[in-house]
Amino acid sequence: MQPIIATENLCKEYKGVKAVSGLTFSVSEGEIFALVGPNGAGKSTTLKMLATILRPTSGSVLIDGIDITAQGDKVRRIISYLPEEAGAYKNLTGMQYLRFMAGIMTDDSARAAAAVVFAADITGLGRRLDDKVKTYSKGMTRKLLLARAVMCRPRLAILDEPTSGLDVLNALEIRSMLKGLAADGMSILLSSHNMLEIEFLSTRMAIIDRGALLALGTAEDLKRANGCANLEEVFSRLAGDAPKADA
User: How many whole angstroms separate alpha carbon 93 and alpha carbon 108?
Assistant: First the structure.
């Protein structure tokens, strides 16, 4: 079975500065794969390239066997992307937002209707979907946005800091949602600064710093290989405290 993501020597430069430098890794179908690194490590840049928002400077990426550079339109039909700072239309109700986004994401009315039903269910917002988004808490808004990202059941969901800024209860709900989606066969690539979240969610992870791959494996593999008791110690040992460039 071919991997859902296969990168080979992936690079991105901004005015001669390498934000991503020679990343090579693969993600299996149905896997929750985490990209971990300090601020400025190149995580968001990598996710944006895989989501076809940024064009790689060099190297290659295949999504489900499709070249993102040569066939970006085809790739976008099977993926979804949720940036860390995403927002929703505040003057729409939650349900109006979901219906609007479903209409954009597919021109098949039956599929759009099914997507709205699925999204409404996994938000857990119930009757609050009839209220305007501007009345939502940050946690409620994030649940709505995550539901939007997966409502059409993409082959691959790319999620940048999906629980950023959320309280413990909301974060737990979203993690449980992601586990359920993966159990149903959806592949998920995410970034997070929360090592406990990474260990709970991911089957494997890649630790990067200054755009380069430092380590790749399961949480247990990385802890054992580095003689560490937890992922925070692994992260500190590998990434260190060197100054970082913006990425």
Answer: 22
Min mean pLDDT across 12-26, 108-122, 163-177 is at: 163-177
Q: What is the mean pLDDT of residues 219-226?
A: 94
The rounded distance, in Å, linking the Cα atoms of 3 and 84 is: 25
User: Which amino acid, one-letter code, is at 89?
Assistant: Y
In angstroms, rounded to a whole number, what is the distance separating the alpha carbons of residues 79 and 51? 7
Closest by CA to 147, choosing from 109, 171, 181, is: 181
Q: What is the mean pLDDT of residues 167-195?
A: 91
CA-to-CA distance for 142 and 156, rounded, in angstroms? 19
Helices (H), the chain: 43-50, 72-76, 94-105, 109-123, 138-150, 168-183, 195-201, 219-226, 231-239
Is pLDDT above 90 for 152? yes
SS3 65: coil
Angle at which helices 138-150 and 168-183 cross, to 10°: 10
| Cβ-proximal residues to 243 (8 Å cutoff; 6+ apart), any chain | none
Q: Whole-angstrom Cα distance, residue 154 to residue 77?
A: 8
Question: Tell me, what's the pLDDT at 241?
Answer: 52
